Amino acid sequence: MCKTERISRNKKSKIVLIRHGMTQGNQEHRYVGTTDEGLLPESVEELRGMQEFWQKQVPMNGRTVADSVHDEIEIVPGKITCEQHCQKNGSKEQIVYVSPYLRAKQTADILFPDAGKVEIAEFAECRFGDFEYKNYAELNGNPDYQRYIDSGGTTAFPGGETKAEFTDRVMRGFEKVFVDAESREGQKRLRCDVSLRIETAHTSLSDTIIIVAHGGTIMALMDQLSEPHKDYFDWQVKPGEGIAGWLEVTADGMQIVSYEKMKLPQGMKNGA
User: Fold this and answer.
1) Tell me: the pLDDT tens digits for 119-166?
2) Judging by beta carbons within 10 Å of its beta carbon (0-12, 13-18, 19+), is residue 121 exposed, middle or buried?
3) Band of the pLDDT at 56, cuts 50, 70, 90?
C-alpha cells in the first residue's frame, strides 16, 4: 500500500490506466522515451474502433452524478440540478490525466473526445538515455546494455533514469492526480444546489480516474499500488490496452484492488 499525507476521508474510485496507441518506434520494438513521435495512421483508425470498448470501462463517463441518480430521487422544487448547472456553465465531469507526449495526448483525444484533459509532466515515459530509440538488434553486443540486462532492469540507463528514479517520479505525478481529483470533487459538491439526497449521492458515488500514458508509467503505478502486489515487469501491456481496477484510499494509504488487464476483443488489432 502506498502511503500518502493527503487523505481527507475514505474513498473508492474506479481507475483505468491505458497505454497509448502504436507508434513507429513501438512497431520497430525501440526504446521510445523522450522521442515525441505521434501515432501511426493505422493506429489512429484502430483507436477509433476501440473508443466504445474503453468508454464502457468508465462508469458515468461523460455524465454527471445527477444523471446517475436523477431517476431515483425527487429534486427540491425551484432548485437546479447538477446536470443543469454543468450544462449551463460548460463544466465537464470526466477528466483524463495524460502524459505530455504527443502519442498519449492523441490517444486520449481519440478515446475520450468529450472529456477534459489534464497533463501530468511526471507521467512522461522513462528517460532511456543512450538507449533512446534503439532496439535489441542495435544494442546487441553493447556492454552497457548487457549490464542493464544482467541487473534485471534495475541499473540506470546510461545517461537516463534508474527504475527507482522513474517510479518515484511517476508516483509524484499520481499524488498530483489524487489532489486534483479531490479538489474537483469538492468543487462539484459546492456547485450543486440540490436536495440533501443528491449531496449524499455525491459523497458516496465514486468518480473514475482515467490515465492515458505509457507502458512504463503503468508498470510503475501498478508496481507501487497493486494489491495483491505484482512486480514492475509483470505489468507490461500492449499499445491501446491497459488495466482497470478500483483505487481504495484510506488513512493507511492507497492501493489498487480488483484489477484486471483489459485485452481488446478479438478482431481489434493493436500491433505487437
Assistant:
1) 999 999 999 999 999 999 999 999 999 999 999 999 999 999 999 999
2) exposed
3) confident
78 within a domain of the structure (yes/no): yes
Return left, alpha or beta for 102; rule: phi > 0 is left, psi -120 to 50 is alpha, else beta: alpha
Neighbour count for residue 270 (Cβ, 10 Å) = 19
150, amino acid identity: D
Residue 84 belongs to a domain:
yes
Domain that holds residue 100: 11-126+161-262
Q: Look up the CATH number of the domain holding residue 29.
A: 3.40.50.1240
